[in-house]
């Protein structure tokens, strides 16, 4: 079982250029829970996810990982880089565009942070990396450099790299959006395995069937406001608002 953490988001608001893209967003994620964030393009999904690890700084509200606030120290001042790095180490993030280091081999992409941030020896980091590359179904093709891999392989390496820092929460920002359709399933399969293992996960996704299958909670954002938050069976079978009903008709006519 991985070590997991709760995420608590309270009254979060965020504007860009005077336009509010998140409005008073609150969300509780229990340890081991999988939460999918759905919504139309521009509704604020990625911004919400990026606020959780302070890649975006919210204007108001707070975010706690296992009760500890990120971004702002106990005295109310902005966290130092070091304090922030300590909080961020609890969070693993997988982006739409993989963000692998292009000049490093698969193995080194996964071992760099454990060696340089956590102080693991090369041998320890490689042992951990090999196990995680197996877990993410990448297998043993570890000397390749990223440009020789398919999008699906890159994303599975990116997942292994995020897991290598032993995060307590995994954040996924549209992890399959940049993939050819035939590669989507293999990446979703890995994420599904992680959900079964008990990882706390927050996912932004457009994969409705997947969200329905893996989530404990589905959150729907509309213009920066959470308008529905429910169990997937309720969300997909009995949405409370016309807005979600319309969205589901457009996005997932088969559901
Ligand atoms: N760094 C930024 N500077 C200015 N505006 C931004 C920035 N990041 C996001 N926005 C704006 O905030 C709004 C919400 O963007 P966000 O990426 O969170 O939406 P989204 O729901 O994830 O959309 P998509 O599904 O298309 O990825 C959009 O109008 C976007 O243009």
Can you put this structure into words, describing what you see?
It is globular and about 55 Å long. Helix 3 crosses helix 4 (122-135), helix 3 (106-116) packs parallel to helix 5 (151-163) and helix 4 crosses helix 5 (151-163). The longest helix is centred in the C-terminal third of the chain and has 17 residues, at 181-197. It has a six-stranded mixed sheet with strand order 6-7-8-3-9-10, sandwiched between helices. A four-stranded antiparallel sheet has the order 2-1-4-5, with helices on one face. It is built from nine helices and ten strands. The model has no long low-confidence stretch (mean pLDDT 92). With 255 residues, it is of the alpha/beta class.
Can I get a quick summary?
With 255 residues, the chain is an alpha/beta fold. It has helices spanning 45-52, 81-88, 106-116, 122-135, 151-163, 181-197, 208-214, 232-237, 242-251; strands at residues 7-16, 19-29, 34-39, 60-65, 68-69, 91-94, 169-173, 200-204, 217-222, 225-230.
């Amino acid at each position: 079982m991985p070590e997991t953490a709760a995420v608590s988001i309270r009254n979060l608001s965020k504007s860009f250029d005077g336009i509010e893209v998140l409005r008073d967003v609150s969300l509780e994620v229990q340890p081991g829970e999988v939460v999918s964030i759905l919504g139309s393009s521009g509704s604020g999904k990625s911004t919400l996810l990026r606020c959780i690890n302070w890649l975006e700084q919210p204007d108001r509200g707070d975010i706690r990982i296992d009760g500890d606030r990120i971004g702002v120290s106990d005295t109310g001042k902005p966290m130092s880089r070091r304090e922030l790095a300590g909080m961020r180490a609890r969070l693993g993030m997988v982006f739409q565009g993989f963000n692998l280091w292009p000049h490093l081999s698969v193995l080194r992409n996964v071992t760099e942070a454990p060696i340089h941030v956590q102080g693991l020896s090369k041998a320890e980091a490689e042992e951990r990396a090999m196990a995680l590359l197996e877990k993410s179904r990448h297998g043993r093709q570890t000397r390749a450099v990223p440009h020789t891999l398919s999008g699906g392989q890159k994303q599975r390496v990116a997942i292994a790299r995020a897991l290598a820092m032993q995060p307590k929460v995994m954040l996924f920002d549209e992890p399959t959006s940049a993939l050819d359709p035939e590669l989507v399933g293999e990446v979703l399969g890995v994420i599904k395995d992680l959900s079964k293992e008990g990882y706390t996960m927050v996912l932004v996704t457009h994969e409705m069937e997947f969200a329905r299958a893996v989530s404990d909670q589905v959150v729907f954002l509309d213009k920066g406001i959470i308008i529905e938050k429910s169990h997937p069976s309720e969300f997909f079978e009995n949405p409370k608002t016309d807005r979600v009903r319309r969205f589901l008709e457009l996005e997932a006519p088969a559901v």
